[in-house]
Amino acid sequence: MTSNLEAPNAVSQAYAHVLDIELSAPVAGLQRTTPKGRQADRAWALVRLFGESLGLDVLDIPPGGLSPEAVEALVLDRRLTHLAQLLEIDAGKADRDTVRDAARTTCGTVFSRAHAEFVARAPRCSVVVCTRERPDYLRRCLDSLTIQDHPDFGVWVIDNAPLSGKTREVVESFGADLDIHYAVELRPGTSRARNVGLRMGDIVASLDDDEVADSLWLTELARAFDGRPEIVAASGAVVPAELSTLAQLLFEQFGAFSKGRGFTAQEFSPRTWNKQHPLYPLPPFGVGANMAFRTEALRRLGVGFDEALGGGTPAQGSEDTKIFTDLLRAGGTVAYRPTAVTRHFHRRDLEGLRRQMRGYGSGLTAFYTASVLARPSTMVDLIRLAPRALRDLYSSDSLRVATLEDDFPRDLLAENRRGLIAGPWLYLRGRVQNRRGDRHNWRL
Q1: 332 phi/psi in degrees, rounded to 5
Q2: Are 77 and 63 in contact (CB under 8 A)?
């Protein structure tokens, strides 16, 4: 199935082209104007080798464009040593021509062989998509699930506080293409819908309705658990699906969904606390837009999504941060696998970005408030971490602002700080609303 969804207010001028570059195949050149008439002087390229994501490169496109050879040279020169290692080439022979030829002639890499071996025996798992009254977004998301190379999975669409039958209609239209199921959570709130999804299988993966999944996504997320019973959760890389507007570009400057993660696989556990404390800095260990859980471990550890956090609550976010942190503090291991890629369609308008920045701030301090209320001893850890957090909040070279360019609007950072201040009170308000069963207004 295909989707004709076109984002609102489409323009011919884009801030950057977004594409993949697969080094095991011939590389295409780049022009400022695409065949569809979109114009940009930069490209953001997800560089891959036999499907493995290696990095996100920003390439400047001169007025005359870049030839295939020029694109290839730019990409190869940035990672010759790494590519030589992946292709099992002697580091002393790792020049551009040798690496290019090996990428085109070899039968695969350790990654591609391991991926294929797992596909041949992958156990059944479930994919959950929580949504509310966004049928076009949902259709585009489900389209991407029809091309997954995982051999055995079911899809559960959780319709949260529906106002119409549009979501059910989209789900039913995919009946011939997916093993797809429809469920309803009448109480509004992303966390409530996510908790319903956690009942849908042993390994449950999820992505948001404003994303599309790479064809290797589910296999790579599920593979993180293979033979590793100590791993209770996994998360993958989230890259932009488009960069057509200023708001989308600014969101990426702020770090988007992948600040601090990069494209190196990592694992977080109690043994890594000296390098990465579960409470700060955030959030290197996982993101709600691309995650999976071993649900037996969640039940055993007594962990789920806090229903006073996330979309649809006054706090607006951080339900994903809290569940990952709760798992780590309960002794679990969380894996980050950048080979499991989703592509996110960021908000296109500046007002939407302002709300998002404010929500990120309020969600963060709401998360800390929730953590202290659940475990008062958390306050001791937060006091110990506070000097670093304050330094990062105002330092010009902190991770929080290191990726910002000089023209990044300061009012967006001010919105974020306003959210930080309001977060604790918003969380408490959300808890009161939960007890009352209020059906408050919200955006997914």
Answers
A1: -80, 170
A2: no
Q: What is the mean pLDDT of residues 21-25?
A: 96
Those residues whose C-beta lies under 8 Å from the C-beta of residue 408, and which sit 6 or more positions away, are 250, 253, 254
Return all residues near 166 (Cβ < 8 A) that are at least 6 apart: 133, 135
In this structure, the number of other CB atoms found within 10 A of the CB of residue 152 comes to 10
What is the per-residue pLDDT for 279?
82
CA atoms within 13 A on the CB side of 389: 17
Closest by alpha carbon to 45, among 240, 288, 311? 240
User: Is 394's pLDDT higher than 70?
Assistant: no
Amino acid at 312: G
Tell me what the mean pLDDT of segment 34-45 comes to: 92
Please name which of 202, 203, 165, 201 lies closest in space to residue 184, comparing C-alpha atoms. 165
- Specify the pLDDT at position 398: 58
Hey, which residues does 16 pair with through a beta bridge?
243
Question: pLDDT higher for 440 or 141?
Answer: 141
CA 349 vs. chain centroid, Å, equals 20
Question: CA 125 to CA 153: how far, in whole Å?
Answer: 5
Please identify, in words, the CATH class of the domain defined by 122-359: alpha beta
Residue 313 CA to residue 211 CA, distance in Å, equals: 22
Cβ neighbors of 381 (< 8 A, separation 6 or more) are 277, 279
Kindly report the pTM of this predicted structure.
Answer: 0.90
- Rounded Cα gap, residues 325 and 245, in angstroms: 33
Locate all alpha helices (DSSP H) within 209-312, ordered by sequence: 217-223, 246-253, 295-301
Q: Check whether 6 has a pLDDT greater than 50.
A: no
Q: Is the CB of residue 269 less than 8 Å from the CB of residue 228?
A: no
Domain extent listing, the chain? 17-115, 122-359
Q: What is the dihedral of CA 4, 219, 48, 6, to 10 degrees?
A: 10
Give 94 or 350, the one with higher predicted confidence: 350
